Amino acid sequence: MTSRRPAAEASADLRAARSVPEGDDFKLVSPAGVGVVHPERLDARSRARAMAPSAFTLVNMLCGFTSIRAAEAGHFDLAAVFISVAIVFDIFDGAVARAVGAITPFGLQFDSLADLISFGVAPAILLWTWSLHDLGLSGWLLACFWLACAAYRLGRFNVTIDPQGEKRYFIGLPSPGAAGVVLASVYAFDGDFDGWHRWGPVLLAVVPAALMASSFRFTSFRWLASPRRDRVWVTVLVVVLLAVGLATVPAATLLVVAYGYVALCPLGWITRPLRVRWFGPDAVAPRRDHLPSVFFLVEKGDREAVPGDG
């Protein structure tokens, strides 16, 4: 018979985290130490505020789904536009969550499910219909590789997110950033590749996808969506420059923003020693701390008790 002692020790560790008083059948805990509260303790107005970000998430998901339909119909530029709109709503659902001061477990899971459609399935379908279909089975496997990396990245994010942790960096290329590389490339190029140019779509499918599944740090720029008062002018300037660029030279603007963001990672790694010397240790990403994972320990013959089985 398997010992239950490890499970008891894990339970004791969780009890050491901040929690609300026990109920009859459940207890709310946060291994990260952030305060938690049961929704029934909130009034109707507070619950509505907590759910407000999910409205932006829903639009994000619907834009991703519409992008899939546009890509299947051969409207590649329109499909890219819908993915870009999904990125905007994905950015602002987080900003709204921080503005109302509530992050719900439902919102976190809903956001990742929406992102899997908008930045996992939609870019993979767009890549396939735009150019990878010419490669036959190899092209389909490349599209599947993109989707697998996006799902892995979002699943890892769900189990490692720390509401009180470092907010300046993402672990791995965020899925909206990877999707941005695809939409910018589709919008800028016609998809007719011959000779050695055929490697363009292949690299486009492999490199951003692999970076999503990597552990490289990428700057979050979250403060642009929720700026402090002393930084509002920076946000306004960035928005104005983007608006002017998209109105005048949209293809070039999208390429610069998308590829420039990906390039920040190796550039940051190269300049790390200089930034530490000039600006101090706060100028670089801190050491990565792993949050504890949860495993269900069951007795032999009790497999029906395992969550998710059956």
Secondary structure: elements and pairs:
Elements: H1 5-16, H2 44-72, H3 76-100, H4 105-130, H5 137-160, E1 169-171, H6 175-188, H7 199-213, E2 217-219, H8 222-225, H9 232-248, H10 250-279
Helix pairs in contact: 2-3, 2-4, 3-4, 3-6, 4-5, 4-6, 5-7, 6-7, 6-10, 9-10
Write up what this structure looks like.
63% of the residues lie in helices and 2% in strands. The protein has 310 residues and is mainly alpha-helical. The chain folds into 2 domains: 1-36, no CATH class; 41-283, Four Helix Bundle (Hemerythrin (Met), subunit A) (Up-down Bundle), CATH 1.20.120. The longest helix is centred in the last third of the chain and has 30 residues, at 250-279. The model is unreliable at 1-29 (pLDDT under 50).
Helix-strand sequence: HHHHHEHHEHHH
Under CATH at level 1, the class of the largest domain stands as: Mainly Alpha
Q: Assign the structural class, choosing from mainly alpha, mainly beta, alpha/beta, alpha+beta, or little secondary structure.
A: mainly alpha
CATH architecture classification name of the largest domain = Up-down Bundle
Mean pLDDT rating: 77
Fourth-tier CATH superfamily name of the largest domain: CDP-alcohol phosphotransferase transmembrane (TM) domain
Total number of beta strands: 2
Radius of gyration: 22 Å
Strand content: under 5%
Low-confidence stretches: 1-29
Q: Please give the domain count.
A: 2
Reported by name, the CATH topology of the largest domain is Four Helix Bundle (Hemerythrin (Met), subunit A)
Q: In one word, what is the shape? A: globular
Number of helices: 10
Distance between the terminal alpha carbons, to the nearest Å? 23 Å
Helicity range of the residues?
55-70%
The profile of the biggest β sheet is: 2 strands, antiparallel
Strand arrangement in the largest pleated sheet: 1-2
